[in-house]
Amino acid sequence: MITLNNIYKYYDSKFQRTFVLKDIDLTVKEGDFVTVMGPSGAGKSTLLNIIGMLDEPSEGEYLFLDQPASSLKENKKVEYHRNYMGFIFQAFHLIDEMTVYENIETALVYKGVKSKERKGMVADMLDRFNMVAKKDLFPAQLSGGQQQLVGIARAIVGKPRLLLADEPTGNLHSDQGREIMKILQQLNEEGITIIQVTHNEEFAKAGKRIIRLADGLKESDDNLAEEVESLKEE
Amino acid sequence: MIRKIKNLYQLAGKNKATLATNVLGLSIGLATTILLVAFILFEWSYDRHFSNAGRIYRLHTIWKDGDSETVHPINLRQAFTEIPQNVPGIETAVQIYRGWSTEIIYDNVRYAHNTLLYVDTTFFSVFDFRMSEGSSEYALNDPGSVVLTRSLANKMFGDNPAVGQILEIENKSYTVSAVTDDVPENTHFSFDLLLPMNALHFMHQLGGLEFFTYYLFDPYADSQTVGDAICETNNETLTERFSMFHGSEFLSEIEPLTRLHLFSNASYDLGPRGSIKTVVLVGAIALLVMFLALTNFVNLFVIEGEQRAKEIGIRKVNGAGKKDIIIQFFTETTFIVSVSFAAGLVLATLLLPQFADLMRRSFPEDIFLSPALVGALAGIFILTVVFSGSYPAFYLSRLKPAAIIKQQDAKMGRRKVVMNLTGGIQLIITLVLLTYLFGINNQIQYMKNLPPGFNPEGLVNIYNLNDNMKRQYPEIRDQLLNIPEVAGVAASGHTIGGGCSGQGIRLAENQADNILAINEYRVQPGLCRLMELELKEGRFFDPDLATDRQSVILNEAAERMLGLTSATGRRVVMFQDPLEVIGVVKDFHYSSAANTIQPLVFTAYSGNINNIVVRIESHADYATSMKKIGETLRSFDEGYIITTSNTGDIYRSFYAGEERLGKIIRVGAIVAVVIVMMGIFMLVSQSILRRTKEIGIRKVLGGSTTKMLAILYSGTIKWIAIASVIAIPVSYYFLDRWLQDYAVKAPLNWWLFVQGVFIVIVLQTIVTIWQTLRVARRNPVESLRYE
């Protein structure tokens, strides 16, 4: 699904070039659940942003669904965002002036889904996350965990094939975090490919694969498939 | 739909104070602009309602006398009786003779103060009026016919038909032949009734410049050729008629009807005239106010937009394309601008009566519906939406969502410069308007405070006297003098401070062809003394000396013009008659102090009395005095309706034009100040908002509130200083140019230029301190907790 070949990301200042990512090679198959780990400033978020087409690599080749995607036209990117990708953020990034319902609906509006269908799809999401009663509340009226549920609902309501999560549990306490991770695992089982960034070793193990970055370089790439199995049994 | 509007409101109004300021500022600016534009369009519409407007031209006579040149809008009778026959390309012509204010008697009831015009039978062929009763075709053919306006007819006859009724006007009977609709306000003349020119037998014998002359050109005639031919013929007639004025030259000019109101350089006219200068100034103020309101609106909208960068980022990540974001911003902008426009229109409608009063115009009720105004408004609407929507829409929609979500103030630097720049320009405009306003008021006060050279206060002119009263003047005078409140009585043919006659004068010993132009006031002996004019030498007219009827009194300017140092005892010639100069009065103002004092002669040869002049005792109650005077006059004419004017008022009215100008600028200046202060208020609060964290940290580190204030304040003061440096020379330039038209100039003191700056600094200080204290007083923890 995703192939990165020799990806570099750097910023040029007057006298020197600051590297954020150096020579990253990565292949993610459909149905994978990848966790990206590493210390602050290692380039995790940048990598995620490049994969999510929110940022562009300085050098290297990026294939998304076997199509070159390193320098796409704006319209094409919007196309991918609408139909293939969902995003979850550490700070939730809900629109404060909109209700839970409206926040979830936003993605569908831009996707061009008809009003009637939207209603059904949003209702399904609310149902799934047990938030029917909260649909008319504003984000500020919800707890952090609930806000992140709305964030996930919004990200997946459009049935994306790839879910990108940038520290989805960073602003939550551990119980809420675990719940979010369970949901991500469920989604993964349903077939959505997930790439998440996290600091938390425990939550990292929720994925099938851990990639460790340090100073922009890929340090390791471990397959955890067996461990995931064991975690589920608990 | 309702949910959509609610949503728009929630999103656009993230910051309620900003939204309110936005809408309020824009609607105030709009209301002002709408009114000013309405005024401009109204001035522009003058006389264009006549269906032949484009083909009607007026003939002017230019009297050149040495360096001075007077453009008279009036001509000889020949301009009507001869020119149309001799010049090809003229369809028809009409002359108007001004009948002034007249009294009508119907059914033994008197109706005073009606504006009367004597016109030729062709009047309605040139100026098409809708007839309310009767037909315009033969309405003026019978010398005994009269045409009334609808309002006058209603006043006299109520709902009964007017045609066929018989009226008495100046001792003659006239039959109403037709009733026209009222003269539209935007016409350069007005009347309540029309009489045919041949109603008065002497009209055709008037041999001087008396008649306003209009030509209707053939549709296919070349106006340039016809105009030139008319002027040429008229020049010949004039030169022949006024051959005795050897020092003078006579020329003609033809002016299109549609230019009369704003562009005419005639020295007087049939009605109050507009001026293109005022229109340009009003236009400039409208533009400036709109600029201020627009820049404010756009600036605030941009700041708002910037604060919403995060929201835009989220939307983009959720699949919003550039187009979606652009549409979103433009929808929101259109919504807010529409609300502001609605508010502006309501405000303009509410203020229309006051504004009409200020501009001395009565606007038609449907003025806001005029296509030009609607067009202008649509233009402003689109401009506002485009400008205020473009930045957020195009700039923010292009930002990379990752960048927006991560770092909020990506490109503050460049935009801050633009905003400071527009803020600076706003300040400059405000300062220039304020300074200009102070300069004009200064000049008006200066001219008003100039001693006029006599005592105008307490002088009352009494008009509307019938022939019988005029004959009985000596008895009336004696009766009036019996009233304790009356200090003195005199009579005159002219009103002091009103118009004069233009005459020719020469020293008796000079050649007959060396005639100089001079203004003449025809008075009765006793008036100069009553006025309390100051004598330079000689004496006033003596009512008891019959020979004084053959004497004149000059002013100093006339004495200088004749090349004399002492004129008393010298003989001058006017109207071919030798007259003796018995005195010279010191120069006094008999028109606006804006003009230099022109040579003037008082004559007493004519027995004609137009008005009786009464001086009221300074301590007397005005109303009581007038009541007693009215009673005395009614003992000479039972139905007399007292009509007066106060010389003091006449002198004050000289500056009405300047005062109106001052008022217009004041409106502009106040609106500018309000809008700019609103803008500053929002800018300060936004910059405080952005620096809340900084303020919190500084306070935690021990910074005092005063220091916070100093930091925020010094930024704004710097801009006032820069704006002042530019605004003061600019306003000096404009004021200096404006003062060029004035014979006396008030000195442009330095404090005139400091006042405006001072006002702006004070207001800005209040705004800044108020806003800063609100934040700085807060507990530092509160502002830090945001993060």
Rg estimate of chain B, integer Å: 34 Å
Please report the distance between the alpha carbons of the first and last residues of chain A: 31 Å
**Overall 3D form of chain A:** globular
Low-pLDDT regions of chain A: none
Biggest beta-sheet profile of chain B: 6 strands, mixed, barrel
- Hey, which two chains have the biggest interface? A-B, 24 and 21 residues
Helix percent of chain A reads: 25-40%
Give the total of beta strands of chain A: 10
Instruction: Give Rg of chain A in angstroms.
Output: 18 Å
* Order of H and E elements of chain A: EEEHEEHEHHHEHEHEEH
Q: What value does the average pLDDT of chain B take?
A: 84
User: Which residues of chain B form runs of ≥5 with pLDDT under 50?
Assistant: 408-412
Strand order of the largest sheet of chain A: 6-7-8-3-9-10
Helix content of chain B: 40-55%
Helix-strand category of chain B = alpha+beta
Oligomer: heterodimer
State the distance separating the first and last CA atoms of chain B: 36 Å
Give an overview in words.
- The complex is a heterodimer of chains A (234) and B (787).
- In chain A, the strands form two sheets. Chain A has a six-stranded mixed β-sheet, sandwiched between helices. A four-stranded antiparallel β-sheet of chain A has the order 2-1-4-5, covered by helices on one side.
- Chain A has 234 residues and is of the alpha/beta class.
- Chain A is globular and about 55 Å long.
- Chain A is built from eight helices and ten strands.
- Chain B is of the alpha+beta class and 787 residues long.
- Chain B has a six-stranded mixed beta barrel.
- In chain B, helix 9 (276-307) runs antiparallel to helix 14 (412-449) and helix 14 packs antiparallel against helix 21 (656-690).
- The radius of gyration of chain B is 34 Å and the shape is globular.
- The two termini of chain B are 36 Å apart.
- In chain B, 40% of the residues are buried.
- The model of chain B is unreliable at 408-412 (pLDDT under 50).
